[in-house]
């Protein structure tokens, strides 16, 4: 997953304003008690950050991939 894919999914799944707030402020234990932004800055794969964020917020698998129903869901690691 590219960083741009991550940003697009954040906007689609959570909404632009709320999603960007989550990326800046939501501390995720699975990412070493870092925010998604901190984890990305540290070089964590965007796919891993995406799954950690969705898991923490109980986003169902069917709703994780935004509005493009043909988008291939990258597998969780």
UniProtKB/TrEMBL annotation:
Entry-linked InterPro entries: DUF3046 (IPR021408)
Pfam families referenced in this protein's UniProt entry, alphabetically: DUF3046
Name of the protein in question: DUF3046 domain-containing protein
């Amino acid at each position: 997953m590219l960083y741009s894919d991550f940003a697009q999914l954040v906007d689609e799944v959570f909404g632009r304003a709320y999603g960007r707030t989550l990326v800046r402020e939501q501390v995720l234990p699975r990412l070493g008690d870092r925010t998604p932004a901190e984890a990305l800055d540290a070089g964590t794969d965007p796919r891993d950050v995406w799954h950690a964020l969705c898991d923490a917020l109980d986003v169902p698998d069917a709703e994780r991939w935004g509005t493009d129903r043909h988008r291939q869901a990258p597998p969780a690691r």
